[in-house]
Amino acid sequence: MATKVQSFMTSQPTQEDFPVSSIEETVIVQVPARLSVLEAVAFKQTCQDLIQKNTPLKQIIIDFHQTTFMDSSGLGALVSNFKNSQEKGIALTLRNVTPQVMAVLNLTGLDEVFPIESSSERPQIETDKPTDNQKSNSRKVEPLPTTHPSVASWMKRFIDVLGALVGLVITGFLSIPILVAIQIDDPGPIFFSQIRCGWMGKRFKIWKFRSMCVDAEAKKSQVENQVQGAFFKNEKDPRVTRVGRFLRRTSLDELPQFWNVLKGDMSLVGTRPPTPDEVERYEVPEWQRLDVKPGMTGEWQVNGRSKVRSFEDVIRLDLEYQKNWSLLYDLKLIFKTVAILFNKNSGAV
Q1: Which residue, among 272, 318, 319, has the nearest Cα to 295 in the 3D structure?
Q2: pLDDT confidence of 133, banded at 50, 70, 90?
Q3: What's the rounded Cα separation, in Å, for the pair 331 and 269?
């Protein structure tokens, strides 16, 4: 499956693009200016080769002094290298982290996970008061990378906010009968929340109307996974309640996600939001899914989400969305979704 995902890649960087120097039992890996999918695959392989060598190795230092762009795949390679080095008892440290890379680490919370060395400070002339230029620099916030045109589109965000407000009004009208039905069928919490991974792997809490029994997560290990790869689905999941099946078939269970869209964690249209345990199983190229915001609907929704039976298909649909994206394409998918909701055989299970 990974071979098919990587088949579109050409002129892939080699390990020669990642100069390696060594001092006793420490090696330093230089990262190039860009760390996107092409470079990320070679970056992971470079570190993997170092980790698997028979020569004694205590520390790997990743030098980011020239890196000004890192997307989801680059982040995925970094996470993978960190895990692999830990398994071998090798310390992995980040050095000379540029503001652009630090912005990504801050977004995802990985700045609290990776050991990061402070870059050598430049000597400065002491003054009684900071200059205006120094004040300006101290307040400067490095912008996050534009991993895909959709994340920089103010019009897409405007449509998201407008659609979320309308959606929340509709949710308000429908919530009372839904709440009553849930309580009658299976008393317990009305809402279900779960941690998902959004843009660049940033974790957020997704909200839905509860469609499963209250102890569904505890029973997950007892349910057969009918799909292949890094996600979970069972067509006749016994944990789903009677009312829950109706909510899923009509997608009414997803109405609270309009709140996620309003907050900016999600978009009306995007890729399928994965769980953290799914992301942990990703190969480097598969992190490309996270280059755009996850959506309430998308290619996977309008192409029979309940019939998708392999992770390879999910990747293919998500990359197709990224390739074809435009504001008009988003609107087209929204209209398709509305039409599908009236098809009784198209809902999730």
Answers
A1: 272
A2: very low
A3: 9
Pairing of strands 69-70, 191-197: unpaired
Pairwise CA distance, residues 98 & 108, whole Å: 16
The whole-angstrom separation of Cα 72 and Cα 199 is 8
Angle at 270 between CA 296 and CA 145, to 5 degrees: 130
Residue 303 CA to residue 297 CA, distance in Å, equals 10
Runs of H (alpha helix) within the chain: 2-6, 37-52, 72-87, 99-108, 132-139, 154-185, 216-219, 242-250, 257-263, 276-279, 299-302, 311-324, 327-341
Would residue 170 be called left, alpha or beta, if left means φ above 0 and alpha means ψ between -120 and 50 degrees? alpha
Contact 116, 97 (CB under 8 A): yes
Q: Mind giving me the DSSP string for 240-294? A: B-HHHHHHHHHTGGGTTHHHHHHHTSSEEE-B----HHHHTT--GGGGGGGGS-B
Alpha-carbon gap, residue 174 to 4, rounded angstroms: 43
Segment 275-286 mean pLDDT: 90
Q: What is the largest CA-CA distance in the chain?
A: 72
Structure tokens at 4: 């098919």
How far from the centroid of its chain's Cα atoms is residue 7's Cα?
Answer: 22
Q: What is the mean pLDDT of the chain?
A: 84
Taking CA atoms, 97 is separated from 64, 100, 119, 325, in Å, by 5, 8, 7, 32
Asked whether residue 128 carries a pLDDT value surpassing 50, the answer given is no
- C-alpha–C-alpha distance, residues 121 and 116, integer Å: 15
pTM of the predicted protein model: 0.82
